[in-house]
Structures are given as structure tokens and as C-alpha cells.
Design goal:
single chain; alpha/beta; TIM Barrel; 12 helices; binds nicotinamide-adenine-dinucleotide
């Protein structure tokens, strides 16, 4: 199952594997095993610190004949410190080298926030938490238009097949569409029943932009980071409504949460280090929720955003 991307016409798998917090030591094996299980899309980022190891897993799977490069869909993301026109293409090539790939299928602007440049020789990945903890968070006045023009050049140079955005709000997307020569193919956002974002889903549908949901299990991903809200509310996986619907279909709560997105044409990229869940997440598309069930799950919306850059992590930043 896939989504056809605009304007390239390339198919993007509806279910992929997220690489955030996949430990560097086990990442190559995790990616290799995920490919063996049937995953074809991997969602990485400069910020995740495991590009080289993820690439090793991919290259080993190709060398062993499990898959061909053109059957895979590799996504990565430009970090906040590389937004200026001097750095976008240089850092696109840097990440391709780290992965050991000739091209990315999808290259996203990770956040619409330009931070002060950190040379990779000094610190890589530039790690947001480093700046937060050291109190050295600094911004750069780089408009999105400047970054986007360089992203377009990456397509023209054949470094990437599709370009897109992540964590962008509606008004910024509308503005980007005013000047983009190549419109964004994908918007990647936090999307789960506690944060359904119906307006942005409707906007992107209308403008032919595919959505990829991250953190599909809501607070689950943020528990291990002791997120102040995630630790206080009921995990979506144990919410009675989700458990009831899961029992009615003979599925797990996780599969219900993923199906709520994919049945509405929204791609998902769950992350798991467990082989059992890896398979469970990939194979969640063999059942359908009723319209009533979809509506009831959407009714859990509480506008709770766990990954809010204005509050990283627990400190308020003013983005002027
Ligand atoms: P996720 O929703 O995939 O949750 C991961 C957590 O859920 C882990 O603790 C995992 O052990 C657990 N889990 C996985 N499958 C399960 C199942 N079937 N049942 C019960 N628990 C299960 O969260 P995530 O890692 O935040 O997001 C997924 C991916 O999205 C990331 O790996 C990354 O690639 C991407 N992402 C992107 C951004 C962005 O800013 N663009 C931000 C966050 C994540």
C-alpha cells in the first residue's frame, strides 16, 4: 500500500520504520531485520545520530539480495543548523555519504527553525539537547524561502527525488506554496488521537501534499524521555476506547492506532526495537475500522502536542 507523491509520481509506502532513538550499536541489525520483515521505507534524520549505521543495514540487505535500492524508500531530514544557502547542498551530500547512498527518496526540512550553524567537524549531529542543556541555543535569520530554493536544487542535481517539510504550521505551508517552484511532496507532523490536527490534514489534502504521521502512539514515545505531560496522562495504548476497539477486531491497541491513520490515507513510521512489534506494526493494514470507530477515536483529540519546539524541553523559546 502506498501514496503517490506530487509532483514526482513516485510511490511512498504507507507504512515505514522510524529511526529516532534506535541505538547506534544495534541500528544496522535493526534496519537489516526490518528489511527482512518487509519494511521498505526508513525515516531517518541528521539529528538521529545513526545515519552511518542505518546505511550499513541497507547496504548489507542489498548485498545479500534481500532487496534492490530502487525498492527502498529512504527519507532523511536537514537539521536546523544547516538552513542557510551555504550549507543545504553541502549537508545533503554529507548525509548521503554517511548513509553510503547516491540519493534520498525524500529529503525534509526537519523544523521550520533556523539555528546557528555548527560545523560538523565541531559537533555532529549538532544535537538540540546539547544547546538546551548548555544554554547556548541561538538562532539564525534564514527565511524558509532561502532553504527551500536549495532543497529544489538538490532535486535538480539528482541528490534527492522528493522534497518536503516537517513540523510546519498551516500559514507557513500556504506561504511556501506561493513561491515554491517544486511544491512539498510530504508534510511530516505529530499526529495521533490526542492531536488530530484536522485543519492541517484538510489543507494538505486540498493542496496535494501527503501526510506522514509521527509519534502515532502519542505519549508512548515520550515516556522514556520523562516528558512532563506524557508521564501524567493515560497512554493511548491503554485507553479503554482503543482497547475495546482492538478486542472487537482481534488486533492490538498499537495496530488500531496505526490503522486510524492509514485508513485515512496518512502514512505512518512507527519505531520499535522488538521483532514482534516490528511485524505487528507493518502488518496492521489487513482490517478496517468502521466510520463510527474512526470518529470515536478522533473524538479523543485533546490538542496535546508532545514535540513542541516552542517548549523544548520544558523551556520556553520565543521564535521572533
Ligand atoms: P512511535 O509512536 O513510533 O512510538 C515509539 C514507542 O512506541 C517506542 O517506545 C516503542 O517501543 C513503542 N511501540 C512501538 N510499536 C508498538 C506497539 N505495536 N505496541 C506498543 N508499543 C509500541 O514514536 P516516535 O518514535 O516518536 O515516532 C516514530 C518515528 O517518527 C520516529 O522514529 C522518527 O523517525 C519520526 N519522528 C519524526 C519527528 C519529526 O520532528 N519529524 C519527531 C518524532 C519522530
Amino acid at each position: 500500500m502506498s501514496i503517490t507523491l506530487n509532483p514526482s509520481g513516485q510511490a511512498m509506502p504507507l507504512v515505514g520504520f522510524g529511526l529516532w532513538k534506535v541505538p547506534r550499536e544495534s541500528c544496522a541489525d535493526t534496519v537489516y531485520n526490518a528489511i527482512k520483515t518487509g519494511y521498505r521505507l526508513f525515516d531517518g534524520a541528521q539529528d538521529y545520530g545513526n545515519e552511518k549505521e542505518a546505511g550499513e543495514g541497507v547496504r548489507r540487505a542489498i548485498a545479500d539480495g534481500l532487496v534492490k535500492r530502487e525498492e527502498l524508500f529512504i527519507t532523511s531530514k536537514l537539521w536546523n543548523t544547516f538552513h542557510s544557502k551555504e550549507h543545504v547542498l553541502e549537508m545533503t551530500k554529507f548525509s548521503l555519504d554517511a548513509w553510503g547512498l547516491d540519493y534520498f527518496d525524500l529529503w525534509l526540512i526537519h523544523f521550520p527553525i533556523a539555528q546557528k550553524y555548527v560545523p560538523p567537524s565541531e559537533r555532529y549531529p549538532p544535537a538540540l539537547l546539547y544547546d538546551v542543556e548548555a544554554g547556548t541555543m541561538a538562532f539564525e535569520d534564514v527565511p524558509i524561502a532561502e532553504t527551500w530554493a536549495e532543497m529544489e536544487k538538490a532535486v535538480e542535481l539528482g541528490l534527492v527525488k522528493n522534497i518536503g517539510i516537517s513540523n510546519f504550521a498551516g500559514a507557513l505551508i500556504i506561504d511556501l506554496l506561493r513561491y515554491a517552484k517544486i511544491p512539498p511532496a510530504v508534510l511530516q507532523i505529530e499526529h495521533h488521537p490526542y492531536l488530530t490536527q484536522p485543519q492541517i490534514v484538510a489543507l494538505t489534502r486540498q493542496r496535494g501534499i501527503a501526510i506522514t504521521a509521527y509519534s502515532s502512539f502519542g505519549p508512548q514515545s515520550f515516556l522514556e524521555m520523562s516528558h512532563p505531560v506524557a508521564t501524567k496522562i493515560t497512554t493511548l495504548l491503554k485507553t479503554p476506547l482503543i482497547e475495546e476497539i482492538a478486542a472487537a477486531h482481534g488486533k492490538s491497541s498499537g495496530q488500531v492506532l496505526l490503522r486510524w491513520a492509514t485508513q485515512r490515507g496518512i502514512a505512518v513510521i512507527p519505531k520499535s526495537n522488538s521483532p514482534h512489534r516490528l511485524a505487528e506494526n507493518l502488518n496492521h493494514v489487513d482490517f478496517d475500522l468502521t466510520e463510527e470507530e474512526l470518529g470515536k477515536i478522533s473524538g479523543l483529540d485533546a490538542q496535546i502536542r508532545f514535540n513542541d519546539p516552542a517548549d523544548w524541553p520544558g523551556k520556553i523559546y520565543i521564535f521572533a
